[in-house]
Design goal:
transport, single chain, about 775 residues, transmembrane helix, two-stranded antiparallel sheet, ND/Mrp_TM, mainly alpha
Length: about 775
C-alpha cells in the first residue's frame, strides 16, 4: 500500500507518451491507475469501520526524524477514496474534453502529478511529509490553472492561486514545526494519541493561528476566497477535480485532521464558525449574481467550504457528522455539475445561463446528471445532500436552537436552493440562439456525472451502510472518539431539523422566483462597494513590485565599488558585533616573545602597505600589495609550515601577475581619483575589517587549545586515507569537496579573466573606429 500512493507519479511520466501513441483513448487506459487505487483503498473500509487504523512507512531523512509514512483512519481513507474515485472519472473526462488538443498529454501528466500530491497529503503521517505534499498540491494546481498559458487571465489566475495558497502553506509549515517542538512528536498518529499536549502548550495560540492561515488560504475562506473563482480560467476537468472535490478541501482536511488536538477550545469554537459563516454567506451572495455556469459553481464551492469550516469549528458530534455528510455530498454533486457545465460548453459553445435553453431534449443524459446533482445541491430527497442538511441542522439545533449559526445556515442553504434551480435553467428554459447546434455529449463527458449522481442517490437509499462504512469512521476520526450515528432519509416526525428544512425549501423557492431581482441587487451592492479582495491582491502585488524596484536601485546600483564596499562593511559588522556582544579579548596578551626578525618582517609589511596607500598609479599599488602576502608566507615558513608557505608564495605571485596583466589590457584611469569623503569612508571600512580579524585571532589564540581534531587527523590520516602527509590528506581526502570547490572557483575566475582580456581590445577597437555619421565618439571602454 505504501508504494501504491506513488502510482500517480508513475502515470504522470507515461501519460504524454501514451497520448502520443493512442490519442484520446489514453484517458480510458490511464483511468485504470486511480481505479485500481480506489479498489485497494476500498478494501480497507470494513476494517476501518470497525475501528482499525493502519500506520506504516520507511525512513526518509533519519537524521531529521522525517519518514515517508502513511496513517489510514476514517478521515484519510474517505479522502483517499474521493481523490481516486472522482479522479478516475476526471481522467476519462479529460481524455474526451481535450481530445485532439496539442498538449493533451502534458495536461494528463499535470493532472496525475496533482493526484499523487493530494493522495500523499491525505494519507501522510509524518508532519514534514504532510507539508511537502500540501505545497505540492499548490505547485501542481498552478500548472493546471495556467495550462492555457497563452492567455493572460489564465496566467494571472495561476499566479494568484500559487501566491495565496503557497503563502498559507508556509504558515502551515511554521505551525507544524511548532507542533513538533511543543509536543516532541513527529507524526500525526503520535499527536492523536496525546490529544491534550498541544492545547496545554504555551505556543497553542501561535500554532492555531498558523494552521488556520494555511487552511483558510487553501480552502478559500474570506478574505482569501477570490483566487478560487478566478481559477475557473483552468480547463473544466481542473475545475471539476481540484476546485470542488479535492484541492480546495485540503484546508478543510487539515482542520479536521488536527481538530482532536487543537479543537474544543474557546479560540477554535469562535474563529472557525465566524470565518466559516462569513464565507458561507459571501459565497452564496456572490454566486446568485453570476450567469456563467462555472462561476456559479465556483462561488457556491466557496460557500460550501465556509459551511464545512463553520461546522468543524462548532465541533459537536452531529455538527461534525453534518460536516462529513455535506463534504461527501458536495464532492459528488459539485464534481458532477462541473463536468456537466463542461459538457454543455463543449456541445453548445457557451456557459451563459441567460442564453442557454431547451437542452433537456438535445442532451437528455446530461440533463439526468444535472438533475441528480442539483437535487443534492438543493438538499432535496432522495439524495445524500438532503441527509447532509438534516444532520447538520440537527447538529446546529442541539448547540443553541435558533442561534446565529442556525440562521446563517438556513439563509445560506436557501440561497443554495435558488442557485441549484438556476443551474437547471439551461435545460428547462425555452431554446435560444446558441453558438453551436447542441447534441448529446460523448460518453467520456457524461459518464462521470451520471456515476457520481448515482452514488449520491445510492448513498441515500443505502443510508445505513453509507453511514457505517464512510460517515461514522470519518466523524469519529475528526471527533477523536467513536460516534454512534442514526440518520434518516425519511423524517419520522416534525422535529426542529425537519422544520428548518421546510423553511429552507420555502425561502429557497421564493428566492428562485426573485432570481433576476436578486441578481441586480447584488450587482448594485458590489458596484457601490467597489473595492474587494481580488483588487486588493493586485494592489499588494503591484506594491511588492514597486518596493522591490526601489530596493534594487539601492542595493544593485550597478557600481562595482558600491558592491565591494557593502561586502566589506558586512564582513566588518559580522566580525565586530559578536565580539562586542561577547566581550573583547585581553589586549595585553602577548604570548611568547617574538624574535627580532619578526619585527623586520612586520616593518617590511607595513612599508609595503604604506607604498600601496601612497602609490601614484594602480600598477605600483598592485605590485606593492604583493609584499603583504610575501611577508605572511615568510611567517608560515619560519613557523615550520613550508607547504603552506609555498602555497602562499604561489598565490601572491599569480595574483600580482594576473592583476598586472589585466591592468595593462584594460583602459582604466592610471590612478585612483576618489573624492576625500569617499576615500575616508573606504578607509574606515578597511580599518574596521582589519581590526575585526585582529580581535578575532586574538580571541581564538587566547582560548584553551582543543586537540581532538588534530589528534583525529594524526591518528587516522594513514588508516583512512592511506597518506602520511597529514596536510595533503586533509586537503585531498577529509576536505575533498571543499578543495574541489576552491579549485572550481579558481577555474571560474581564470575563465572570466581570460574572457575579459579577450573582449576588451575588441571593444576598444570598436569604440575607436571612425564614426560613419562624422561625429566624434566620446565613449571609452
Amino acid at each position: 500500500m505504501l508504494w501504491l500512493a506513488l502510482a500517480p507519479f508513475a502515470a504522470a511520466l507515461i501519460a504524454p507518451w501514451l497520448v502520443g501513441r493512442i490519442g484520446g483513448r489514453a484517458g480510458w487506459v490511464l483511468a485504470l491507475v486511480p481505479a485500481i487505487l480506489f479498489v485497494a483503498f476500498a478494501s480497507l473500509l470494513p476494517a476501518v469501520a470497525n475501528g482499525v487504523t493502519f500506520a506504516y512507512g520507511v525512513e526518509w531523512a533519519p537524521s531529521l526524524g522525517v519518514r515517508y509514512s502513511h496513517f489510514i483512519d476514517g478521515l484519510s481513507l474517505t479522502f483517499a477514496l474521493l481523490v481516486t474515485g472522482i479522479g478516475t472519472f476526471i481522467v476519462v473526462y479529460a481524455g474526451g474534453y481535450l481530445s485532439g488538443h496539442g498538449h493533451h498529454g502534458r495536461f494528463l501528466s499535470f493532472l496525475f502529478l496533482f493526484m499523487g500530491s493530494m493522495l500523499g497529503l491525505v494519507v501522510a503521517d509524518d508532519l514534514i511529509s504532510l507539508f511537502i505534499f500540501y505545497e505540492l498540491t499548490s505547485i501542481t494546481s498552478f500548472l493546471l490553472i495556467g495550462f492555457d498559458h497563452e492567455r493572460s487571465a489564465a496566467r494571472r489566475a495561476a499566479l494568484q492561486a500559487l501566491i495565496v495558497t503557497g503563502s498559507g502553506g508556509l504558515a502551515l509549515f511554521a505551525g507544524l514545526v511548532l507542533m513538533r517542538l511543543a509536543s516532541g512528536e513527529a507524526s500525526v498518529s503520535a499527536l492523536l494519541a496525546t490529544p491534550d499536549v498541544l492545547r496545554e502548550a504555551p505556543a497553542y495560540t501561535a500554532i492555531f493561528v498558523l494552521v488556520c492561515l494555511g487552511a483558510f488560504t487553501k480552502s478559500a475562506q474570506v478574505p482569501f476566497h477570490s483566487w478560487l473563482p478566478n481559477a475557473m480560467e483552468a480547463p473544466t476537468p481542473v475545475s471539476a477535480y481540484l476546485h470542488s472535490a479535492t484541492m480546495v478541501k485540503a484546508g478543510v482536511f487539515v482542520l479536521m485532521r488536527f481538530a482532536p488536538v487543537l479543537g474544543d477550545t474557546a479560540l477554535w469554537g469562535t474563529v472557525l464558525p465566524l470565518f466559516g459563516g462569513a464565507t458561507f454567506l459571501t459565497g452564496v451572495i456572490l454566486g446568485i449574481r453570476q450567469t456563467d455556469l462555472k462561476q456559479i459553481l465556483a462561488y457556491t464551492t466557496v460557500a460550501s467550504l465556509g459551511l464545512l469550516v463553520m461546522l468543524t469549528g462548532i465541533g459537536t458530534e452531529y455538527a461534525l457528522a453534518g460536516a462529513v455528510f455535506y463534504l461527501l455530498a458536495h464532492a459528488l454533486f459539485k464534481g458532477g455539475l462541473f463536468m456537466v457545465s463542461g459538457a454543455i460548453d463543449h456541445e453548445t459553445g457557451t456557459r451563459d445561463i441567460t442564453v442557454l435553453g431547451g437542452l433537456i431534449t438535445k442532451m437528455p443524459i446530461t440533463f439526468l446528471a444535472a438533475l441528480l446533482g442539483c437535487l443534492s445541491m438543493a438538499g432535496l430527497p432522495p439524495l445524500v445532500g438532503f441527509v447532509a442538511k438534516e444532520v447538520l441542522y440537527d447538529g446546529l439545533w442541539e448547540v443553541g436552537g435558533v442561534s446565529v449559526a442556525t440562521i446563517v445556515a438556513v439563509i445560506g442553504n436557501a440561497l443554495m436552493f435558488a442557485i441549484a434551480g438556476a443551474v437547471m435553467l439551461p435545460f428547462l428554459r425555452r431554446p435560444g440562439a446558441l453558438p453551436k447546434k447542441p447534441h448529446e455529449a460523448p460518453p467520456a463527458l457524461w459518464l462521470g456525472p451520471i456515476v457520481l449522481g448515482g452514488v449520491a442517490l445510492g448513498g441515500a437509499l443505502l443510508l445505513d451502510d453509507f453511514t457505517h462504512l464512510l460517515v461514522a469512521p470519518m466523524t469519529g476520526a475528526v471527533a477523536g472518539a467513536a460516534v454512534e450515528l442514526h440518520p434518516h432519509l425519511i423524517p419520522t416526525g416534525l422535529y426542529p431539523p425537519v422544520i428548518l428544512t421546510l423553511v429552507t425549501i420555502g425561502v429557497g423557492l421564493v428566492l428562485f422566483i426573485l432570481l433576476s431581482v436578486l441578481r441586480r441587487a447584488v450587482a448594485g451592492l458590489l458596484t457601490a462597494i467597489g473595492w474587494g479582495p481580488d483588487k486588493g491582491f493586485d494592489q499588494v502585488i503591484a506594491g511588492i513590485v514597486r518596493g522591490s524596484v526601489a530596493v534594487t536601485k539601492v542595493v544593485q546600483p550597478g557600481s562595482m565599488q558600491s558592491y565591494v564596499t557593502a561586502t566589506f562593511l558586512a564582513i566588518a559588522l559580522a566580525l565586530l558585533l559578536p565580539l562586542g556582544a561577547d566581550g573583547l579579548p585581553d589586549l595585553r596578551y602577548v604570548g611568547s616573545t617574538p624574535e627580532a626578525f619578526y619585527f623586520v618582517i612586520l616593518a617590511v609589511a607595513v612599508g609595503g602597505l604604506w607604498i600601496v596607500i601612497r602609490a601614484k598609479t594602480r600598477l605600483i599599488a598592485i605590485v606593492s600589495l604583493g609584499v603583504q602576502g610575501t611577508m605572511v608566507a615568510l611567517i608560515f615558513m619560519l613557523y615550520g609550515a613550508p607547504d603552506l608557505s609555498f602555497t602562499q608564495f604561489m598565490v601572491e605571485t599569480l595574483s600580482v601577475v594576473i592583476l598586472a596583466l589585466v591592468m595593462t589590457r584594460l583602459d582604466l584611469k592610471a590612478s585612483d581619483h576618489r573624492a576625500g569623503p569617499v576615500a575616508t569612508r573606504d578607509g574606515v571600512v578597511a580599518i574596521a575589517c582589519g581590526l575585526g580579524f585582529t580581535l578575532l585571532l586574538l580571541n581564538v589564540v587566547q582560548q584553551p587549545f582543543d586537540p581532538r581534531l588534530s589528534e583525529f587527523f594524526l591518528d587516522h590520516a594513514y588508516d583512512i586515507a592511506h597518506g602520511r602527509n597529514v596536510v595533503n590528506v586533509i586537503l585531498v581526502d577529509f576536505r575533498a569537496l571543499d578543495t574541489l570547490g576552491e579549485s572550481a572557483v579558481v577555474m571560474a575566475a581564470g575563465l572570466a579573466i581570460l574572457v575579459l582580456i579577450r573582449m576588451v581590445p575588441a571593444v576598444t577597437r570598436r569604440i575607436a573606429a571612425p564614426d560613419p555619421t562624422g561625429t566624434k565618439g566620446e565613449g571609452r571602454a
